[in-house]
Amino acid sequence: MKTEQINRAYELAKARYADLGIDTEKVLEQLQNFHLSMHCWQADDVSGFEVQAGALTGGIQSTGNYPGKARNIDELRADVLKAKSLIPGTHRLNLHEIYGDFKGKVVDRDEVTVEYFQSWIDWARENDTKLDFNSTSFSHPKSGNLTLANPDKGIRDFWIEHTKRCRDIANAMGEAQGDACIMNLWVHDGCKDQSVNHYLYRKLLKESLDEIFAKEQPCMKDCIEGKLFGIGLESFTVGSHDFYTAYAAKNNKIPTIDTGHYHPTESPADKVSALLQFVPELMLHVSRPIRWDSDHVTIMDDATQELFSEIVRAGALDRVHYGLDYFDGSINRIGAYVIGSRAAQKCMTRALLEPSKMISGLELQGKGFQVLGILEECKALPWNAVYDEFCLRNDVPVGTDFIAEIERYEADVTSKR
Ligand code: RNT
Ligand code: ZN
């Protein structure tokens, strides 16, 4: 698209929004400070780099076999940088423990140390990227159906040790980057079929968490992610939404809202204003469930829009960490990163451009028809001209121009793997 055309459209949009009391320059500034935490696991279908790596287990699944997935740390880093070059703004990278730089060594999960993440810390510094982190309880011979909630003390202790070490690593990352590293804890623990020991499993998970979180870690923040069910663990999930909500509220931890982890008609967006009354911050895993927790690429759908709008309306922009979490192996994986990240930004653009103060005033006066009328009109206001201007100012492709860039990278790089 031509610069002049983008600028002209932006100027018109600016005037249109000014009429509603919205300063688009301020919105552009807010967008610049809106950092996504890009998940490293889209690049390689959640495989990771353990020398001893086995199949993906733990109730999650990446489907599709599109050629060109990252096979090693260098390829993954190159792919992430390529994706970042097509997404406006500055973004974080969210690493799972299995993505360490193990240098050909078999390092079991209870042996991991920051040494295996030093090259990531250096890479992040060189590439102006901050890191977030995740412990990894899946894809391991000791994963089974139960990890931190396992009645077998040996197995439970193995995972407790792993998670404690991960907190040390996250803390070291946070210290190195001068900004807290957000560490997410998700375990797949659950039952495939009928079970009578729900209370026991949840008691064990609670006790494991208490032990894991006992150590103060000043440079990292803990998030805990619940879910509804996993594949092969359909009947019961130990770490349910209620379990972690209660745990977070009581222990001042950050709940992770993964948008694929609820009943199909349940609204993740509606949790924002409820949870933020009781917990310090929220972590998001923005995804797109199709009928189940399928982890399709994020798009501008109603669920994502409503989620971001609820955050802005709550005045909670800086109380939320914006992680992405999807893994589609059926399309170009760099394209998946770019589409999902840009969709999240576009939803945020629209959320920031909503004349919430005006609408709130009307609502408080009982003017229901006017509220609905303005909200409907907002959908079709020229928010895209503001997002295009944001891309332009960040020197990244505007509109569909990123597609040709990814096709070129595919021809030159990923198709040769
Ligand atoms: C699984 C959770 C979890 C994972 C990642 C890979 O249902 O959403 O966040 O997707 O840890
Ligand atoms: Zn998730």
Give me some keywords for this one.
417 residues, alpha/beta, TIM Barrel, eight-stranded parallel β-barrel, 12% strand, binds L-rhamnitol, binds zinc ion
Describe this structure as you would to a colleague.
This protein is an alpha/beta fold. It has one domain (36-356): Divalent-metal-dependent TIM barrel enzymes (TIM Barrel, Alpha-Beta Barrel), CATH 3.20.20. The protein contains 14 helices and twelve strands. The protein has helices at residues 3-19, 24-32, 73-84, 118-126, 153-177, 198-212, 241-251, 270-275, 302-313, 333-352, 356-364, 368-379, 383-393, 401-412; strands spanning 36-39, 92-96, 131-134, 181-185, 190-191, 220-225, 236-237, 254-258, 282-286, 288-290, 292-296, 320-324. The strands form three sheets. Strands 1-2-3-4-6-8-9-12 form an eight-stranded parallel barrel. Helix 5 links the parallel strand 3 and strand 4. Helix 3 (73-84) packs parallel to helix 10 (333-352) and helix 9 crosses helix 10. The chain is globular, with a radius of gyration of 22 Å. The mean pLDDT is 98. The structure holds L-rhamnitol and zinc ion. Residues 186, 225, 258, 285, 325 line the site of zinc ion (ZN).
